[in-house]
Amino acid sequence: MDSVRLRALEIPRVEGHLEVELFTDEKGVVKDVRVAALEGIRLIEKVVTGLKYRYVPSVTSRICGICGYAHTVCSVLAIERALGIEVREEVKILRDVALRLNHIDSHLIHIAMMLPDVIQDVAKYRELLRDVIILRSEVATVAETLFGNRVHPVTLAVGGAYHIPRRSVLENLLKKVRDLCRRYEELLRKLLDAMRGIPKVSRYGKFMALKSHRYSVVEGIPTVNASEEIDVSKVRLILREEARDYSTAKFCFLDGEPCSVGAFARLLTNERNLLCEPAKKEVMNLRRDLKDYITMNLVAQVIEVIEHLNRVAQELPQIMDIAGRSIIEQPKRDEGVGFAVVEAPRGILLHEYTVRNQVVSRCNVITPTVINLGSIERTVKELATGKSVEEIKKTVLTTVRSYDPCVSCAVHVTTLSRARSH
Fold this sequence. Notes:
alpha+beta, Cytochrome-c3 Hydrogenase, chain B, three-stranded antiparallel sheet, about 45% helix, globular
């Protein structure tokens, strides 16, 4: 690189430690960009190696304090496929409910963290922040009642579920979710109005999401750019991870190109399968912006919350027949290889396991942020190159936050500036 100075911006208001390194010339003009994860290596894939299969989901859940539900569900599905376990339809729906609640919870956290980027009016900011926090708390209560814990679900298991609440509890939860649908529909308009001023930053590379007739987040066909369908078994072959010496997280590329995943990709891929009329209307109006600008991912999350709430209200009645029960199906074999793809809040999540004698001998996990890192770096590079740091600093921070990166289970709020030779 021809740069002589490094300006490092650690991104506040994201999950974990992420740094954007801006390499500049003597005049402070950006010449190159690197995006680096600064978290310590977790080694979860090695931790679960040697464990009995039934214990693995509760460990992989600890990969993240926000996406615990997503890792649990994906881990359960992959292990079931390795061991030939078939579960009944109601259990599949129960898992879909779990993951939708996880999406809602995670999106509301990110919306709260992004509000300062889009709202300058302090009174309006406080009002919306309060409403978002209250809604998130009530959604977390629903998740805790259904799955035993609002962060790491304790009732979801390989083969089914250890405990499902009794019918009267499910009926009360259904009433609560329907009320949340009504209340959030009122909040939806306020949030969308507040976000009209969000900067429009172009996204580079392809995007990918699961396509499903019912906007499912636990099953579907991996689809690139909303049109190119890929066999699930081939996804891990075209998604290639690369290690970078400046980042503790790997970068993942789709056929060698940057790829983005997340709420915007799901809406674009499944717009014809949306259930909620307000969601349909907004996606129709904003389709071009959702496709072109990564900063619109925040708007996509706002829209997706109302869709998921309505889907949960639709799905809860379908699990009434298994209320009050414990359902665990046993393995049909003791070894095998299992692979699963689900939609975590931040996008496509992959788990793969090799099981021998009912013990995990190999594990591979690819997370949405690993997939997004290449796109983040390319997008920031296109945005910043040739401009001064002060000119683009605020937009860079907003752009990176728009991807909703999930680097660890902590939020670190600092801005770091230092110089070093390169």
